[in-house]
Amino acid sequence: MSVSITLEEKILEAIIKTSNNNITITDQHGNILYSNPEHWTVYGIEPTDLTGQSVYTLQDEGILSPSISAMVIKEKKEVQVMQHTITGKVIMSTAYPVFNETGELIRVISYAQDQTEILNLHQQYDQLKEKVKGYQTEVKNLRQKNGISYRSKAIQQVFETINRVANSDATVLFLGESGVGKSMFAQTLHSLSPRETEPFIEVNCSTIPEHLFESEMFGYESGSFTGASKHGKQGLIQQADNGTLFLDEIGELPLNIQVKLLRVIQEKKFIPVGGKKEIHINFRLVVATNQNLENMVQKGTFRSDLYYRLNVIPLQIPSLRERKEDIALLMNHYLQIMNTKYQASKRLHSKTFDYLVQYSWPGNVRELENLIERLVLTSEESIITPSSLPQAIRGQLSSTEEKSSYLLEKLFQDKRNLKEILEETEKFILLKAYEECKSTYQIAKMLGISQPSVVRKLKKYK
């Protein structure tokens, strides 16, 4: 009998030592009877045989914090806890009591698993989720705040940059073709800045005559020139005090005004036309152009010192043809706006939709917006077909193809059943063939049916 017990103990000891889990068995007093020496490294101590050691001593030394075996001895039931070791690891321990025939506690078996890496991964995952949620909220807020529809990465990157620099007073230079929405992006920058509640003054440098530019920009004192208001006039720069001054088409700025603008940017002060007193000003400057300012600097039509003052944060706005994935969203966006504006309920035919998506849009977003408005106003039908599109967009469109496509969609929208749709389609094809052919025999040959069938069907539909 004693040989059998010894063998069982050796087998048990071998199982514990070869296990991938830290298995420890103690008696009812907390003394370690069996343990895996290698796995004690997770508790911050060298691999060693701890047989005979007390879990209470290890607990007092901070190695077991807390000792799960001690908890089971006290509570006489299964316990599971997360232990924090002196090395900073997190261990999940589970312990089970073992009772004899009379119900007395005789052993405690505990298992320990290092959860540190798993918890770190959970924390990283939670942090990543929060970060992604933050980005999604940020992008959503930008879209909602500005009513902008887009899905392209290029525009998303523009908005991300705008969001990063909005809280600063750094000059932003928007670059891009006419109609890409540079003004809208400038307004977005202003609305996200601390100057949001202050004025946003937009100046199109190409629309102000050169001889009036200085008085419009800097204002003038009463009686400063013939025709001047007797009360004087506040300039556009002064109107932007504490807010944002947006100079669109900055490339059109006359050279003599460029010098004065440079001084205002550098010193934040100016003198109105006919005035003597300097006016101090505080504004954030945002500019835009569809021209290549670097080339203009080389040609001498734009001052290099002003260019370097403006080119602090350049932002290139891509053309619409470079972000085709945004076209469908923008079409639906403006269609909704125009329907609301004109109390209409127009929709785009699928073929019309295809043509608009494939179009190159040289006028960019502005051209798209204007076209949608025109289509809503001029299209007679509720469904805007390709025939309503300008020739430049639809090209040489087959009128037969357009009519047949429109017919099918109209029948479907009218909730016709399949039999009615097939009859109307057959009627359309037959009558079209009748227009092109000289005899019923030719119609039969074209459509691949018998001549009597043609006669019978013509009699039905004519």
Automatic annotation (TrEMBL):
Residues 8-54 form the PAS domain. The keyword Transcription regulation applies. One of its GO terms (biological process) is regulation of DNA-templated transcription. It comes from Cytobacillus horneckiae. One of its GO terms (molecular function) is ATP binding. It holds the Pfam family Sigma54_activat. It comes from the Bacteria. This is HTH-type transcriptional regulatory protein TyrR. Keywords: Aromatic hydrocarbons catabolism, ATP-binding, Coiled coil, DNA-binding, Nucleotide-binding, Transcription, Transcription regulation. InterPro entries: AAA+_ATPase, AAA_lid_NorR, Homeodomain-like_sf, HTH_TyrR, P-loop_NTPase, PAS, PAS-like_dom_sf, Sigma_54_int. PROSITE patterns: PAS (PS50112), SIGMA54_INTERACT_1 (PS00675), SIGMA54_INTERACT_2 (PS00676), SIGMA54_INTERACT_3 (PS00688), SIGMA54_INTERACT_4 (PS50045). Residues 111-145 form a coiled coil. The keyword DNA-binding applies. PANTHER family: C4-DICARBOXYLATE TRANSPORT TRANSCRIPTIONAL REGULATORY PROTEIN DCTD (PTHR32071:SF57), TRANSCRIPTIONAL REGULATORY PROTEIN (PTHR32071). Residues 148-377 form the Sigma-54 factor interaction domain.
